[in-house]
Design brief:
Strand content: 35-45%
Helix content: under 10%
Radius of gyration: 13 Å
Number of strands: 8
Shape: globular
Strand order of the largest sheet: 4-5-6-7-8
Structural class: mainly beta
Number of helices: 0
């Protein structure tokens, strides 16, 4: 998998991005039926994504024009907030995308 922007990496089924609420990468599997606007710098994916980790932790969000809108059923501190999609942390970056 390789980094395609400062904010996203390519995966087998689409992309992944770093969620600061969960403190981990989340998949954006547009090749499996989600819609993507084709913009790597300010992506929009639809419909929403919901990750239920099975241990009471839920991350549910909508990505529009590079902004992450966290839904009310998230179980982390960013619930109900909208933030800009963050850059990938250093350990997930490729050499051609330095800080």
């Amino acid at each position: 998998m390789s980094q395609v922007t400062a904010k996203m990496r390519m995966t087998t089924d689409g992309f992944s991005w770093w969620c600061p609420g969960c403190n981990k990468a989340h998949p954006l599997p547009y090749k499996l039926g989600w819609l993507w606007n084709g913009d790597l710098d300010a992506p929009t994916f639809s419909p929403s994504f919901k990750h239920d980790w099975g241990n009471g932790n839920v991350c549910h969000y909508i990505i529009t024009s590079g902004q992450i809108q966290y839904c009310g059923d998230c179980t982390h501190g960013l619930v109900g907030r909208t933030i800009l999609m963050p850059d990938l942390p250093q350990h997930l970056r490729d050499d051609e995308f330095p800080e």
